[in-house]
Design goal:
Elements (H helix, E strand, L loop, with lengths): L1 H26 L10 H14 L4 E3 L2 E2 H18 L4 H31 L1
Antiparallel strand pairs: 1-2
Helix pairs in contact: 1-2, 1-4, 2-3, 3-4
């Protein structure tokens, strides 16, 4: 019974994170398919990293570096597949966190450029 509950929680968390990452890829201009896989999301964020302005994103990080880190975590999650669900979720959450940080640093810079 406990294993079934943990499995259902992990599956729900996986679905939420994939949805968040699909939204993030769309925010960066990616054409997200209806039911994207982790590898497809990695490809979309990798394209975003290539096209992103290389602005400072924090201590030693640029927007591109943050997005590249998100791509690395997505690729790690894709390699794990369903073998280690908790570890896969950790990689998905790291990808979300890195993309969020990259986006937070890009948005204020875009506002400043418009204000000029």
């Amino acid at each position: 019974m406990i294993n079934r509950e943990i499995s259902s929680r992990l599956a729900a968390g996986h679905g939420r994170r994939v949805t968040q990452l699909a939204d993030a890829a769309a925010r960066w201009g990616g054409q997200v398919p209806e039911d994207p896989g982790i590898t497809e999301l990695a490809d979309l964020l990798e394209a975003a990293a290539t096209n992103a302005p290389d602005r400072p994103g924090g201590p030693g990080h640029t927007t591109r570096a943050l997005l590249a880190g998100a791509v690395e975590d997505l690729r790690a999650a894709a390699r794990l597949g369903g073998l280690l669900p908790a570890v896969t979720l950790w990689h998905l959450q790291r990808a979300i966190d890195q993309e969020h940080t990259a986006h937070q640093h890009t948005v204020p810079a875009q506002r400043q450029e418009r204000g000029r």
